[in-house]
């Protein structure tokens, strides 16, 4: 039913829960995983400091993404699940758009991702890549909820 499952990961506990669910699902369905880490170069605008040039910071983020994806691929393979991974960085794309592009480029039949479950003002202020992926995806999306954080409005 779902031959290739795309799993965006960022190293957070919530994305780890999404990865765990995707591995379990892939094992049951004999599916392959496509693991993805998106380096959000747009964050450089707020993160640039005098002590670390933007190119070096971006290089460090990519290296961290490579380590994260490699560990996730090994975790999936240790459970008997076929997995490959990629790190993407396109300064012209939002994270959600990079995820949707990867789903299309890899012929993913399902996207499994963690969501932080933000509500209220935090959701409005921070946005939700998971929600934007859900709205824009041409394939089914399974959202794995982390802990819900509500505002004291």
Would you give an account of this structure?
The protein is of the alpha/beta class and 153 residues long. It has one domain: HUPs (Rossmann fold). It contains 6 helices and 5 strands. It has a 5-stranded parallel beta sheet with strand order 3-2-1-4-5, sandwiched between helices. The radius of gyration is 16 Å and the shape is globular. The protein starts with a strand and ends in an 8-residue tail after the last strand. Mean pLDDT is 86; it is low at 120-126 and 149-153.
User: And the CATH topology?
Assistant: Rossmann fold
**Mean of all residue-level pLDDT scores:** 86
Tally of separate helices: 6
At the first level of CATH, what is the class?
Answer: Alpha Beta
CATH-defined architecture: 3-Layer(aba) Sandwich
Overall, the morphology is: globular
- Low-confidence runs of at least 5 consecutive residues: 120-126, 149-153
Quickly give the structural class.
alpha/beta
Q: What proportion of the residues form beta strands (DSSP E)?
A: 15-25%
Terminal CA distance reads: 43 Å
What is the helix/strand order? EHEHHEHEHHE
Count the strands? Answer: 5
Write the layout of secondary structure elements.
Layout: E1 4-8, H1 13-29, E2 32-38, H2 44-47, H3 54-78, E3 83-88, H4 95-105, E4 110-115, H5 120-126, H6 129-136, E5 141-145
Parallel strand pairs: 1-2, 1-4, 2-3, 4-5
Distinctive features:
19% strand, 153 residues, 5-stranded parallel sheet, alpha/beta, disordered C terminus, 6 helices, Rossmann fold
């Amino acid at each position: 039913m779902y031959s290739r499952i795309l799993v965006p990961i960022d190293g957070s506990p919530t994305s780890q829960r999404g990865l765990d669910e995707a591995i379990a699902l892939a094992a049951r369905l004999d599916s392959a995983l496509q693991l993805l880490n998106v380096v959000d170069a747009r964050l450089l605008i707020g993160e640039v400091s005098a002590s670390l040039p933007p190119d070096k910071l971006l290089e460090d983020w990519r290296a961290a993404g490579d380590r994260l994806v490699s560990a996730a691929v090994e975790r999936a393979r240790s459970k008997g699940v076929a997995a490959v991974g990629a790190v993407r960085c396109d300064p012209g794309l939002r994270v959600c758009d990079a995820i949707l592009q990867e789903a299309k480029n890899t012929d993913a039949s399902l996207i499994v991702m963690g969501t932080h479950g933000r509500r209220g003002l935090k959701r409005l202020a921070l946005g939700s890549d998971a929600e934007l992926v859900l709205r824009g995806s041409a394939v089914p999306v399974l959202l794995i909820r982390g802990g819900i954080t509500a505002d004291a409005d």
